[in-house]
Amino acid sequence: MADYVDANIEYKKMGVYYYPPQNDHGAVVGDVELATAGTALTLMQLVMRQTDGKYDPTDANNEASSKGLIGIVLSSNGGTLADTNRFVLVLEGWIRDDSWNWTVGDDLFISTTVGAITASAPAGGSDVVRRIGHAVSADVIYFHPDNHYKVV
Predict the structure, then answer these.
(1) What is the pTM assigned to this prediction?
(2) What is the pLDDT of residues 70-102, one digit of tens each?
(3) Whole-angstrom Cα distance, residue 77 to residue 129?
(4) Domain extent listing, the chain
(5) Which segments within 52-85 are labelled E, that is strand?
């Protein structure tokens, strides 16, 4: 929207500016939700919202755990979250994890390893291929899950 004045109301161009996290392991810039674990979860695990509103790990071997609202576990109270624990879930944005070692520009997908992310699209029989983001550096991803997926 361009800047202009109408009936004594001033309208300005607006925008939201996000800058990828630079120095902090586990840092995120983006949209988050306070969520509830449906099973034991760990930090940086990829999870999907279940019909009961709780989150369980994704698995590209199983369409039922790969096709809904997904996110990444950001807080885990220093370890594993037990069933029904509350945690911070990243729904979209830049996430940094010093243990990652991505190649810049890689497309990222739900993995056939439960709760993991991979740079290789699953290719086995009945695997779900769903892009979840892109590597912007070795340890930072832009998490932006695609709502579309296919079973191969």
Answers:
(1) 0.82
(2) 999 987 655 667 767 888 899 999 898 989 999
(3) 31
(4) 21-151
(5) 55-57, 70-73
